[in-house]
Write a structure and sequence with these properties.
Pfam families: Big_10, YkuD
Mean pLDDT: 89
CATH superfamily of the largest domain: L,D-transpeptidase catalytic domain-like
InterPro entries: Big_10 (IPR041280), LD-transpeptidase (IPR050979), LD_TPept_cat_dom (IPR005490), Transpep_catalytic_dom (IPR038063)
CATH class of the largest domain: Mainly Beta
Active site: 322 (proton donor/acceptor), 341 (nucleophile)
Protein name: Lipoprotein
Largest sheet: 9 strands, mixed
Low-confidence stretches: 1-32, 38-45
Oligomer: single chain
Organism: Streptomyces nodosus
CATH architecture of the largest domain: Beta Barrel
Number of strands: 28
Length: 403
């Protein structure tokens, strides 16, 4: 069976990238910050304090998270005043008086004035001022991502972002996301259209490695009227290596764990009129039980099963590997009868742990790889689900805006 895209699929899971920004210069229009120094540096004299504002004077579309921040070098902050509409914005001075941060985010679409005064180590004062306007909330773009922070995934799991606005400045957005593996393998991004950006290494992730994703999108201009908001670092762990190979002609699936055979399972794949895709597919969702209705994927009236057990999504268009309790035992390992999915023997309700469907579900992680071969269908498209492994490394790199 094929089943439509679900709101639960991680590639479109609305996991908003939250978290506070880090100190430093603005990443907005001119990607620079304002700085001033007390007096000039003369021979034999120590330089004055240097005040660094996170915005430039006159800046528009400024970040609501970072724009009011102030730091100083070579001295200490004496006073910082951030104001808007006749009111003063509360802030926190660091104990060492080297930085000042507003309490909470600034308001959207508002004009602010920032005045900071510092005293240098030799007692001289300096003042730096800036007026700026924050971006409108409608100008903010947000990325959803997979996998989740702290998760353990299979070796095939890409890092995938989906943006809620079309991205024109792809290089700036891609460069603001850094993906690193503890294995040291290079990781490259690839754009599928103007809203989706995936990252992967040349080959599957190294088992038991750790992957960090640093997201520094706050203030990044993705397009006219589209500015980033998010700063966060997420980390996930790659588990053991499990790759399962389905032979649609032989009606079997060979499950391998860390390169060694684990189990061979009889299966039923897509019937001749609705064959299963070939290619490398990644498990992107696990459902203990779900409803599958043929009317949603062009098979109206052919099936509507309310309690399909142990379903794991392999494509956005509706390819699953799942338990099948309604087919006769004689079809498994002998014939292909499905509407495109891969079926395993299972019990209604999924309560029999000895059945193949329950066993495979219990052994699988999001990010595990299922390879289908010898089917009568074409190879699955790389952007249909998390299936970029069906693209050569050269073609993958060609789709990077920053590589």
């Amino acid at each position: 069976m094929r089943w439509p895209t679900s709101a639960a699929i991680p590639v479109v899971l609305a996991t908003l990238l939250a978290g506070c920004g880090t100190d430093g210069g603005s990443r907005a229009d001119d990607n620079s910050a304002s700085a001033g120094a007390a007096g000039s540096t003369e021979p034999g004299k120590r330089p004055g304090s240097r005040i660094v504002l996170a915005v430039t004077d006159g800046q528009s579309h400024a970040s609501v998270r970072r724009s009011g921040r102030v730091t100083v070098r070579g001295g200490t902050l004496r006073d910082v005043v951030l104001s808007t509409g006749g009111r003063t914005v509360p802030g926190r001075m660091s104990p060492d008086r080297l930085s000042w941060t507003p309490v909470g985010d600034l308001d959207y679409d508002s004009r602010y004035t920032l005045v900071a005064t510092a005293t240098s180590e030799d007692g001289r004062d300096a003042t730096e001022k800036a007026s700026f306007t924050t971006l409108r909330e409608s100008e903010r773009f947000v990325g959803t991502f997979t996998p989740d922070d702290g998760s353990t995934v299979g070796v095939g799991m890409p890092v995938s972002f989906t943006f809620d606005k079309a991205i024109a400045n792809k290089r700036a957005v891609e460069e603001a996301i850094t993906v690193r593996s503890s294995s040291g393998r290079p990781v490259v991004g690839h754009w599928f259209g103007d809203r989706r950006l995936d990252f992967r290494p040349q080959d599957y992730w190294k088992p038991h490695s750790t992957v960090s994703v640093k997201i520094a999108l706050d203030g990044v201009k993705g397009a006219d009227g589209a500015y980033g908001y998010q700063n966060k670092t997420v980390t996930f762990t790659v588990g053991r290596s499990q790759v399962s190979t389905v032979d649609a002609a032989a009606h079997t699936m060979k499950v391998s764990r860390d390169g060694k055979p684990l189990r061979t399972v009889p299966i039923t794949a897509g019937a001749p009129e609705s064959p299963t895709y070939n290619g490398q597919m990644v498990v992107s969702e696990k459902l203990v039980q779900t409803r599958m209705n043929g009317a949603t994927v062009g098979f109206a009236g052919q099936y509507d099963i309310p309690d399909v057990p142990h379903a794991m999504r392999l494509s956005a268009s509706g390819t699953f590997i799942h338990g099948n309790y309604w087919g006769a035992d004689s079809v498994f390992g002998r014939s292909n009868i499905s509407h495109g999915c891969i079926g395993l023997k299972d019990a209604q309700g999924g309560g029999d742990a000895a059945r193949d469907g329950a066993w495979f579900y219990s052994q699988s992680l999001i990010g595990d790889v299922v390879i289908v071969k010898n089917s009568k269908d074409r190879t699955i498209a790389p952007d249909n689900g998390l299936n970029g492994w069906n693209m050569s490394w050269a073609d993958w790199q060609a789709g990077s805006a920053a590589h």
